[in-house]
Design goal:
By secondary structure, the chain is mainly α. It contains 17 helices and no strands. It is about 75% helix and about 0% strand. Helix 3 runs antiparallel to helix 4, helix 4 runs antiparallel to helix 10 and helix 6 packs antiparallel against helix 7. Its main location: membrane.
Length: about 325
């Protein structure tokens, strides 16, 4: 163990370590998609209620991250990508992470029920349960389809935002869910292509480990093809519009091109250039989702001026 590592592991946890437990980068996606779901809903929400609701949804997402880190501490210790996290590095104890996760889970769901409605609160509670129990504790270590089924947890936030505004579920909120759900496998499998050794050491049955990288490349292309009609269905829905349609055309063309390039690669070529295309596709996948939901926001803004959507054409 290097002197730097020893110092890093021995120092006391700071505020930033507890923030890291909440997976802030993942939380940013949760916050953004939940906000879009709330804003594009047909029923207006008081700005104060909207702000508090999004904050509570973010806390619920952070609680899920803390509970995930608590349960996955054993495999985080052997993966290069995660060994610097607060628990494996020794800065935060597993008990602290568990306490923080449970506390924030209860607080976020209770307060969301009081601030917005109990349907949205129950939806948030179910999302936390799904991510922690169904995905983290069960699917992640059981099946190579872990990220396919478990990806539903990350797709629920826009539905929760919609539920805050409407108190229910609709075709539009399901389409937002479906976009994230179908996007998740190619997004994570691209990461797995250049992080395969990590998952092998941790004993996580990611598709790259159980079926190999060639099969993973084929799966990325298949799910990308299946993603396209969902994106266009959302564009032509009541919350879509010309901007969302333009985004769907451009982004899906880029995504399909990237998935096809990944499919055509052999391992020797990919390894020789450091998985450059796979890493670029992973970065593109992040921009893909943010841009799609950003386009929904633009169309919603245009509708507020009477020029958005499809009715004005």
């Amino acid at each position: 163990m290097s002197d730097f590592t020893a110092i890093e592991q021995s120092r006391e946890a700071g505020f930033g370590d507890y923030v890291q437990l909440l997976k802030p980068r993942v939380m940013s996606l949760v916050v953004f998609t939940a906000m879009v779901g709330l804003v594009v809903a047909p029923q207006p929400v008081h700005p104060y209620v909207a702000f508090v609701s999004i904050l509570l949804i973010a806390l619920g997402g952070g609680a899920s991250g803390a509970l995930n880190m608590w349960y996955d501490a054993d495999i985080d210790r052997v993966m290069r990508r995660t060994m610097g996290r607060p628990i494996p590095s020794g800065r935060v104890s597993e008990g602290e992470a568990l306490g923080l996760g449970l506390g924030l889970s209860g607080l976020s769901c209770l307060m969301l029920g009081l601030a917005a409605n109990w349907f949205a609160a129950a939806f948030l509670a179910f999302t936390i349960f799904f991510y922690v129990v169904i995905y983290t504790m069960w699917l992640k270590r059981l099946t190579p389809q872990n990220i396919v089924i478990g990806g539903a947890a990350g797709a629920f936030p826009p539905m929760i935002g919609w539920a805050v505004a409407t108190g229910g579920v609709s075709v539009e909120s399901i389409l937002m869910f479906a976009l994230i759900f179908m996007w998740t496998p190619p997004h994570f499998w691209a990461l797995a292509l250049f992080m395969k050794d990590d998952y092998s050491r941790a004993g996580v049955p990611m598709l790259t480990v159980t079926h190999g990288r060639a099969a993973t490349r084929r799966h990325i292309l298949v799910y990308t093809v299946l993603l396209v009609p969902v994106a266009f269905a959302l564009a032509f829905s009541s919350i879509g519009g010309p901007v969302t349609l333009l985004a769907a055309v451009i982004l899906n063309a880029m995504f399909l091109r990237g998935a096809w390039a990944i499919r055509q690669r052999d391992e020797a070529e990919a390894e020789a250039d450091g998985y450059r295309i796979e890493k670029s596709f992973f970065k593109l996948s992040l921009a893909y989702l943010f841009a799609h939901f950003g386009a929904l926001l633009v169309d919603a803004s245009l509708r507020s001026f009477g020029v958005g959507g499809w009715g004005w054409l």
